[in-house]
């Protein structure tokens, strides 16, 4: 039925609008952050332009009798959808590196640091020294937990927001 088709088309348009808003304003449920950089904003402006073009063709399709739908309209609709897909994929790529850090490059650097540390002959001595300090701090894990929490939270001379500056037991 034509009304079912139109309802499905309108529901699809709403989903596209919702996704567009989520890309611009962020969406905690899907883990999309709110836009923070101009390059991402520019990307989202392109998504908006492509979205409007697609909506124009969808409206024409919705307003046209099914028999009268032209090949040109269908071709424009397909091209517009592909352009929108590319723009949205570019926007998602910006989100993945919103802080300017490429996750793959960071993983490669981290892997390099780990390999360098593992090759250091002094690493075993450091691990043994840490284990000895850990064991001497308190007799059991619950006692260590209580002692470390007290040292970090209650006895830490640094104000909230700077507690990580603690580098010795108070």
Looking at the structure, what is the overall shape? elongated
Instruction: Tell me the Rg in angstroms.
Output: 28 Å
Order of helices and strands: HHHHHH
Give the count of helical stretches.
6
Largest sheet composition: none
Low-confidence stretches: none
Percent in helix? over 70%
Derived from helix and strand composition plus strand pairing, the structural class reads: mainly alpha
Mean of all residue-level pLDDT scores: 79
Q: Name the assembly state.
A: single chain
Fraction of residues in β-strands = under 5%
Question: Quick one: how many beta strands?
Answer: 0
Straight-line distance between termini: 75 Å
Overall description:
With 170 residues, this protein is an all-alpha fold. The protein has six helices and no strands. The chain has helices at residues 2-25, 38-63, 71-96, 103-119, 123-137, 141-154. Helix 1 runs antiparallel to helix 2 (38-63) and helix 2 (38-63) runs antiparallel to helix 3. The protein is elongated. The N and C termini lie far apart (75 Å). The model has no long low-confidence stretch (mean pLDDT 79).
């Amino acid at each position: 039925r034509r009304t079912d088709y139109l309802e499905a088309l309108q529901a699809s348009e709403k989903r596209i609008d919702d996704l567009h808003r989520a890309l611009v304003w962020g969406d905690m449920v899907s883990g999309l952050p709110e836009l923070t950089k101009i390059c991402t904003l520019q990307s989202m402006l392109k998504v908006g332009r492509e979205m409007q073009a697609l909506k124009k063709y969808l409206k024409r399709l919705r307003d046209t009798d099914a028999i009268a739908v032209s090949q040109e309209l269908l071709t424009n609709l397909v091209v517009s959808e592909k352009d929108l897909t590319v723009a949205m994929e570019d926007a998602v790529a910006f989100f993945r590196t919103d802080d300017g850090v490429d996750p793959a490059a960071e993983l490669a650097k981290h892997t390099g640091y780990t390999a360098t540390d593992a090759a250091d002959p002094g690493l075993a001595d450091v691990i043994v020294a840490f284990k000895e300090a850990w064991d001497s701090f308190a007799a059991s894990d619950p006692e260590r937990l209580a002692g470390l929490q007290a040292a970090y939270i209650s006895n830490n001379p640094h104000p909230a927001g700077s507690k990580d500056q603690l580098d010795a037991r108070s």
